[in-house]
Design a protein that fits this description.
It is a single chain. The chain is α/β, with parallel strands linked by helices and 236 residues long. An 8-stranded mixed sheet has the order 3-2-1-4-5-6-7-8. Helix 4 links the parallel strand 2 and strand 3. Helix 2 crosses helix 3 and helix 3 runs parallel beside helix 4. The radius of gyration is 16 Å and the shape is globular. The structure holds ligand NPW and potassium ion (K). The site of ligand NPW has 29 residues, from helix 1, helix 2 and helix 3. One of its GO terms (cellular component) is mitochondrion.
Length: 236
Amino acid sequence: MALRTISAKSAAALDQELMSTGGFSIDQLMELAGLSVSQALFRLQPLSKGKRILVACGPGNNGGDGLVAARHLYYYGYQPTVYYPKQSKSELYQRLKKQLEDLQVPFTEDFTSALQNTDHIIDAIFGFSFSGEVREPFPKVIEALASTKIPVLAVDAPSSWDIEDGPREDGPGKGFMPPALISLTAPKPLVKCFKGTHFIGGRFLSPSVAEKYGLDIPKYEGLDQVVEVPVENGKL
Ligand SMILES: NC(=O)C1=CN([C@@H]2O[C@H](COP(=O)(O)OP(=O)(O)OC[C@H]3O[C@@H](n4cnc5c(N)ncnc54)[C@H](OP(=O)(O)O)[C@@H]3O)[C@@H](O)[C@H]2O)[C@@H](O)CC1
Ligand SMILES: [K+]
């Protein structure tokens, strides 16, 4: 199956359109995005293979997807730990954080130590709005993601990858190739460089919006919020 990709600019425009004329709120989109991330994790790492999930969250909506996923994972029976060093003060993020605190989901400030007690990592640091050099406090975290043997599920983009061109050739993140990626709504152009297990999530695209943006809606089965779309030879 060949799915078309969406540029960072169009992905941001699509988001805005869903919220302005599409009748969605950001809470809804983030909830569905985070739910799909939790389902992808469940497929990769059934509870019997280890429950300790480290969710690394960045300052934007990619990080918000991670906070939502952590909550769903808790209810599935996992033991999520959240690393969220640059916290947004906006009301939505404060609510997502409160929901996790009420479940006594731990927040850690020490990513490196947390890695020692983790079965799987969710990379929700940067999504389609990432650009330029990785700024503090994230270079060390990206380096750790690039070098760890613990499996990583990247949300929308492997953090530090250029959204159009893919992996970095130098600096933190050089050599970062997570074993799994979930693209939200549609794959970003960087997917051409990805080698690993690839899912699509974000089951909220209407046929008319998909047509307008030149996107494909993958065939979701039943209750699933994710569909696996293999990447072979650099092509979807
Ligand atoms: N329809 C969909 O598909 C939906 C998509 N959703 C999700 O939203 C994601 C896009 O979210 P987004 O636009 O908030 O930006 P995101 O990628 O999280 O990062 C921006 C933050 O990172 C920062 N930053 C940037 N560059 C940096 C650098 N070099 N070094 C350090 N920091 C850097 C930047 O900080 P600042 O520039 O302000 O300092 C900003 O705060 C998308 O990928 C998907 O996961 C769902 O939630 C909803 C439905
Ligand atoms: K990411």
